[in-house]
Amino acid sequence: MNNSESIPQKIDIVAATPEDARAFEEVTRQSWLETFPNEEHHISRADIEERFADMDARSALLHERMQHPKDRELYLLAKRGNEVLGVCRLVMRAHENEIQNFFILPAQTGRGIGRQLWNQALKLSEPGKELMLRVATYNAEAIEFWKHLGFEETGDVILQPLGVKSGASRPMMKMVRVAEGS
Length: 182
Hints:
Blueprint: H1 3-6, E1 12-15, H2 21-35, H3 45-51, H4 55-67, E2 72-80, E3 83-92, E4 96-104, H5 113-124, E5 130-136, H6 140-148, E6 152-161, E7 169-177
Parallel strand pairs: 4-5
Antiparallel strand pairs: 1-2, 2-3, 3-4, 5-7, 6-7
Helix pairs in contact: 2-4
């Protein structure tokens, strides 16, 4: 082990800008490739690659969404220097706060980055409202992560189409965390 590996590196949680759209999409793509292929649900690596085939178009769309958000949305990055290690989209609605697109680079999981990103998202969410997210039913690691942070399974599961030629869909379960003071 060299000295740079033994010294913990500072992680910054910052607001993403439209110029970060490509890096945001790349973290999402790498996470999807690692997490979502699943034989039981007929989701192949090729399906994921198809979904992310046109990174220029995906990045341009996200750039536009970041410039002109529909709802009260915040995009967060977990960074070490200039390297983006994790991403999160927080949407604040009248009745709830929703965590979307919460991903850490696969090679960086288990290092506390997700916890730091979550802590910042929680600070920025509107107080007194339920927090909601959806997680793939077969993503046991993510389910345990969210349970550890106080989220509970609701029993609500939807099939979320991937938008690929095979017609594959992810079974996504809703998890909620009751608002503080409720």
